[in-house]
Design goal:
Distance between the termini: 71 Å
Largest sheet: none
Number of helices: 4
Radius of gyration: 25 Å
Order of helices and strands: HHHH
Structural class: mainly alpha
Strand content: under 5%
Shape: elongated
Helix content: 40-55%
Number of strands: 0
Amino acid sequence: MTDETDTPTETGDMKPPQPAVSIVQEMRTAYLDYAMSVIVSRAIPDLRDGLKPVHRRILYAMHETNNTYEKSYRKSARPVGDTMGKYHPHGDSAIYDALVRMAQPFSMSLKLLDGQGNFGS
């Protein structure tokens, strides 16, 4: 390190000043972009299969742990914990709600899981 400072000698070395941006307008566009990305990527089910990303993550976690129809029932905390730990770090209540909805015949067009006991009936 030296005690001397490097000052630009030519006018081409200096960057032009950035235009002023209104904080209100920037917040409005940033929030709108974020809200649209949340709606499109998380809140609306996909047209191909009707599943949200959390449903896909739960089914994949259950597939990885070999939780299939011919095996015995497991507690719902197991797939919820596996999903939250590996694929969906947003809290267990959203995962559990999605898991329960997949076991209810009146919530989705097809019942995807066979729930044992009280699954929100």
